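Listing S7. Sequence submitted for prediction.
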Amino acid sequence: MKSLIIIPAYNEEACIEQTVRDITEHAPDFDYIVINDCSKDHTREICEKNHFHYIDLPVNLGIGGAVQTGYKYALNHGYDFAVQVDGDGQHDPRFLEEMLQVIQEKDLDMLIGSRFINKEGFQSSGLRRTGIRYFTWLIHLLTGKTITDPTSGLRMINKDVIAYFAKDYPRDYPEPESIVAILKRKKKVAEIPVIMRARAGGVSSISPLKSVYYMIKVTIAILLERIR
């Protein structure tokens, strides 16, 4: 049984080294691959210097394209499970073994690590929590499934979903839309409580000024995904 950690990284020089070292220490049974999304800082040089496993994208694909590159890698190398762990240090790899156990025991297609079940650790800003609650409501309205943390990047998927996402995965802000895509296909999705941390470095791609654009764009994408 082979499991892969996909680490999308764009300008993560402040934290990519610690992120990978946390993974190798606390999730030693997982393989990993850093997807350097054409960073403009020293992310690639840090990976190269430390002999990390990485793919260096020649152009910036955004979070969706970077993660899909990881799924293509997982598919081509025969992995049974894949999990996204962001390169900014927010996701604690100590939860990965538990996630792998749960996804197998419950025969799930996707397992999401949610910060909002037990409400421990970093809870994001008030504005973002409002947006997250909105997407929880919208996904429930369209699918009947309640996902407490639909924007969580800490998501583990099985081999069937790896194959699907390797061929078809949203480019921008993919988490809520991709959940709807697999729920529409009658896949089994569940959550477990995790503790997330504040970013160890870098800057979020969703600034306050982009929040309205994000809400509108993702809402339209979700609605289109639901009816297509």
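Caption to Listing S7: primary sequence and predicted structure tokens for the chain studied. Strands lie at 3-9, 31-36, 54-56, 81-84, 110-114, 155-158, 189-193. Residues 126-143 form the longest helix (18 residues).
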